[in-house]
């Protein structure tokens, strides 16, 4: 295994696709038709011309949002059109493009996303949190390059399962979907010395209580000072207050970051696509990997934890106009109502996705000849 930061991953991905001989399997939540996305699409088109099997799994989020704005927003309307055209060009070139997790009627599945980020190029893979877009390629984040044949096979099998519209949960060399939360809970509740949890987006009440009851003598949460989702920002003052009251140290990075991980006792590291909240763990499709390689963890700590600094809790809470009482209401409503409904809906989303993609494939295929 090898740890790659943003720039290292982009260079490695471009090189891997350019040299691919057999397959390029890519699963992301967003694939924007900006400079970064178009460059990757061009490399994939060239790979197809060499006979490489290119298969893409992209969450339907990418059809509705571009650069984290609604596709209909005037600032990204041209980019949204280019994104749609890019997908069509890839299809015409011979790529299999499958969109996962449709929004459904009345956006009933809006909180049920396929949040996995996975790249399998020939006999190696990349797992982590980086989508394909200008901003995802520049936000502080990381990916793990994997060459172990058993792990690559497990990742390839999971890709195939998702492509077939299945919501399978596995716990082998990788952990996905419903198997992630038990692993996460076990790590936190059995920690002895330290827990370091990093997530750019707000935790929730359940995870706060889990950290509160952890026996670890040192507990640290690394969170973003200002994430890019308004409704999550509203709940943060209350959650930060609860964490600080139960002795959790709050830290952050100087700029917005997109990396997420759980490091326990300096010898167990959980990485992948998941945000550490019940929405991510129970409603999304996620991909994680548990690492216990001492050499990798030492390198990870020296690189990823080097730039963390204290979170200025008082200053940030004062900037939230909703106040602590409003934040309490938002936090409890989100955890107690919104997440529960989304969790109940989650198993139905892949069924609609499967039907939707079958229709798309039928539409794309030429009509069958009639007669002799």
Structure described in brief:
The protein is α+β, with helices and mostly antiparallel strands and 372 residues long. It has helices at 6-19, 35-49, 61-64, 77-93, 134-138, 149-163, 180-189, 205-212, 230-245, 278-282, 294-304, 313-318, 323-345, 349-364, and strands spanning 2-5, 23-28, 53-59, 65-66, 69-70, 96-100, 118-121, 124-128, 142-146, 175-176, 194-199, 218-223, 249-252, 261-264, 268-272, 287-291, 309-310. Residues 362-372 have low confidence and may be disordered.
* Proportion in β-strands: 15-25%
CATH superfamily of the largest domain: Endonuclease Chain A
**Total tally of structural domains:** 2
Q: Widest sheet: strand order?
A: 10-16-15-14-11-12-13-17
The pLDDT mean sits at 87
Specify the helix fraction band: 40-55%
Low-confidence stretches: 362-372
Can you characterise this structure?
The chain is an alpha+beta fold. The protein has 2 domains: 2-163, Endonuclease Chain A (Endonuclease, Chain A); 175-338, 2-Layer Sandwich (Endonuclease, Chain A), CATH 3.30.870.10. Helix content is 44%, strand content 20%. The chain has 14 helices and 17 strands. It has helices at residues 6-19, 35-49, 61-64, 77-93, 134-138, 149-163, 180-189, 205-212, 230-245, 278-282, 294-304, 313-318, 323-345, 349-364; strands spanning 2-5, 23-28, 53-59, 65-66, 69-70, 96-100, 118-121, 124-128, 142-146, 175-176, 194-199, 218-223, 249-252, 261-264, 268-272, 287-291, 309-310. An 8-stranded mixed sheet has the order 10-16-15-14-11-12-13-17, with helices on one face. The protein has a 7-stranded mixed sheet with strand order 1-9-8-7-2-3-6, with helices on both faces. A two-stranded antiparallel ribbon has the order 4-5. A hairpin with a 3-residue loop joins strand 14 (261-264) and strand 15 (268-272). Helix 2 packs parallel to helix 4 and helix 9 crosses helix 13 (323-345). The longest helix has 23 residues, at 323-345. It is globular, with a radius of gyration of 21 Å. The termini are far apart. The model is unreliable at 362-372 (pLDDT under 50).
């Amino acid at each position: 295994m090898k740890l790659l930061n943003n720039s290292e991953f982009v260079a490695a991905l471009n090189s891997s696709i350019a040299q691919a001989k057999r397959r390029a399997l890519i699963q992301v939540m967003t694939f924007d038709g900006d400079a970064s996305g178009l460059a990757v699409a061009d490399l994939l088109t060239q790979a197809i011309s060499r006979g490489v099997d290119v298969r893409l799994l992209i969450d339907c989020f990418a059809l509705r949002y571009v650069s984290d704005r609604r596709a209909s927003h005037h600032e990204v309307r041209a980019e949204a059109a280019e994104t749609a055209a890019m997908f069509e060009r890839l299809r015409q070139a011979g790529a299999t493009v499958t969109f996962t997790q449709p929004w459904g009627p009345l956006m009933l599945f809006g909180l049920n996303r396929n949040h996995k980020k996975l790249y399998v190029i020939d006999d190696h893979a990349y797992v982590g949190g980086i989508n394909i877009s200008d901003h995802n390629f520049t936000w502080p984040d990381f990916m793990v390059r994997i060459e172990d044949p058993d792990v690559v096979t497990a990742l390839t099998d999971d890709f195939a399962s998702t492509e077939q519209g299945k919501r399978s949960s596995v716990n082998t060399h990788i952990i996905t979907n419903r198997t992630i939360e038990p692993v996460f809970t076990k790590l936190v509740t059995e920690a002895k010395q330290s827990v370091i949890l990093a997530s750019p987006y707000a935790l929730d009440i359940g995870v706060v209580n889990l950290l509160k009851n952890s026996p670890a003598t040192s507990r640290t949460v690394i969170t973003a000072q200002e994430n890019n989702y308004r409704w999550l920002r509203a709940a943060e003052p209350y959650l930060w207050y609860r964490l600080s009251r139960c002795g959790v140290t709050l830290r952050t990075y100087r700029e917005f970051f997109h990396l997420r991980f759980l490091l326990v006792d300096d010898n167990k590291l959980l990485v992948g696509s998941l945000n550490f909240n019940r929405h991510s763990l129970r409603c999304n499709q996620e991909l994680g990997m548990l690492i216990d390689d001492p050499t990798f963890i030492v390198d990870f700590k020296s690189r990823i934890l080097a730039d963390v600094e204290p979170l200025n809790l008082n200053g940030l809470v004062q900037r939230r106009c909703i106040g602590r009482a409003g934040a309490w209401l938002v936090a409890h409503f989100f955890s107690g109502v919104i997440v529960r409904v989304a969790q109940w809906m989650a198993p139905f989303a892949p069924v609609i996705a499967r039907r939707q993609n079958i229709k798309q494939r039928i539409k794309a295929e030429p009509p069958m000849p009639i007669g002799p």
